[in-house]
Amino acid sequence: MPHKLTALARILLAQVFLVQVAMLIIGFFNTPDGYQQYQAQLGSLSLPGIFAPLIILVQLVGGLALFLGYKTKFFAIFMAIYAVIISLLLHLPPLQYLAIAGGLLLLFLHPNTAFSLDNLKK
Fold first, then answer.
1. Can you give the residue range of the structural domain that contains 15?
2. Number of domains in the chain
3. Contact 63, 17 (CB under 8 A)
């Protein structure tokens, strides 16, 4: 049972990033200049436009890797660092993103979860 609960935790942590990507993409399609607005929003925070596709790419790849349980240990620590950095850069609620980073650090310590691609290799 513990491995199944850690799989659920892994999937719930992944959905944080995947839902954010989905919401961004839906926003891009619902507004004719949605992507430009997103870039402008990042620009207002002193981030260059190149950060827009990078943020989307990191959240999509990291979220999918966590969701599927692929290289879980690497992506857990990578996304924990990403969560802290992005919360500081985008002035997001720090406690929320520190909590997400904490969950990802626990996943880093216990990467062997049920229903993961990592377990198919064994």
1. 2-120
2. 1
3. yes
